[in-house]
Amino acid sequence: xxxxxxxxxxxxxxxxxxxxxxxxxxxxxxxxxxxxxxxxxxxxxxxxxxxxxxxxxxxxxxxxxxxxxxxxxxxxxxxxxxxxxxxxxxxxxxxxxxxxxxxxxxxxxxxxxxxxxxxxxxxxxxxxxxxxxxxxxxxxxxxxxxxxx
Length: 149
Hints:
The chain has helices at about 5-20, 35-50, 55-65, 95-110, 130-145.
């Protein structure tokens, strides 16, 4: 399974981000491409330990039982609900958000598992650094597929 800690997987994701344009249209969902990039950056902030969204009651109840969504080779289902604090609804600048996301991906990858957040995922709960690495790749892959990249 792909993992953002793997330099080849990181390079592949960065290349796919480069293939996006301000005119890229979603195949599902409501975010435009700049909002999606900002959303992915906000998710990176959680894994980097720069943001600490609270655990949600439903996640506390069933999160650890359904976290297998992230740890298989199947794509994430379309239109899955998101963490409310990282749902982006305001307008964003494509170039700014694209560069910001690329930098956060590179920072996370270069920091390595040792510097990964120990704060629990807001829905799924406690993640190991390995789970964060796989989950980040899968989250980015999901949204890049959303925009045909």
